[in-house]
Amino acid sequence: MDLRELELFGTLMRVGTTTETARLLGISQPGVSGQLKRLESRLGVSLFHRTGNRLEPTHEANELFALAVPIFNTHALIRSKLPALRNLASRPVSVSATPALVEGFIGPILIRAGYRNWKKRIVLRVHSPEDDLRSGEADIGLQMALPPKAEFQAYKIGHIPLVAVLRKDHPLAQMKELTCAAVSTHPLVCYNADWSPMGGTIRAAFTAQGLSYDPACVVPFCANVCSMVRACGGVGIVDAMTVRDYVMQGLVSRPIMDIPNVSIIAFHRRNEPLRAPVQDLLTALRKPVA
């Protein structure tokens, strides 16, 4: 018996008439009678005796039904779960990203993934991506550092240069390109290299040149770097996306030739099946830009 035949047989056992079975299954009453006749012929046993308008199951039918009860129960459980699964599938994808990636990176990706004119829904969190994924607040994290491998499955989806940001009246603003050595002779606005991956990258570049990494002002985010440089001067180091919003606010940026680019990382919880819309967005994030 295939699943369709089991459904027909189980419904006949429950309701006892071909008319009601036809209504429940959305087929004609002659269709039910014809399918039952073909099923009995294929099985080689009689399943029902007709008594008036009702069908009385035979001994063989009762034996088969007892064996099939777990299948019917499983089918009922699946049907009961479907509304919750549909609701889960329709829930917006939640993405947690660092500020620079929300402002300068994710927009074109969303268009490519079908979010133009908000035909799909999304929740964007500007917070700590790793913490948001651990707590279940986010489905996908975006940041400029590899997360712990044991917890997360990560993908490099792009890269971006780090640049110096400074006021227009700063002496280094007259130069087209800078080096770590040139930057190190001025007060530095930057990150705590012990907890900021970007700070670690910058410190490693300074160390490779035999320079000391000792910021005069330690801040948590790239936007804070720009704000502090604009207010108090000095030289900051940020990603090239962040500085775009500040070039009209009295700041300029200059490339630093001996600091490597940083990678843009998309990641999700390891060993956890992804909902279909989450997988769709992750696929768009991983697709190379044409």
Automatic annotation (TrEMBL):
Similarity comment text for this entry: Belongs to the LysR transcriptional regulatory family.
Protein name: LysR family transcriptional regulator
Keyword field: Activator, DNA-binding, Transcription, Transcription regulation
PANTHER family cross-referenced by the UniProt entry: TRANSCRIPTIONAL ACTIVATOR PROTEIN LYSR
Organism: Agrobacterium pusense
Any one GO molecular-function label of the UniProt entry: DNA-binding transcription factor activity
PROSITE patterns: HTH_LYSR
Domain of life: Bacteria
Domain HTH lysR-type: 1-58
Keyword Transcription regulation: yes
UniProt cross-references to Pfam families, sorted A to Z: HTH_1, LysR_substrate
One GO term (biological process): positive regulation of gene expression
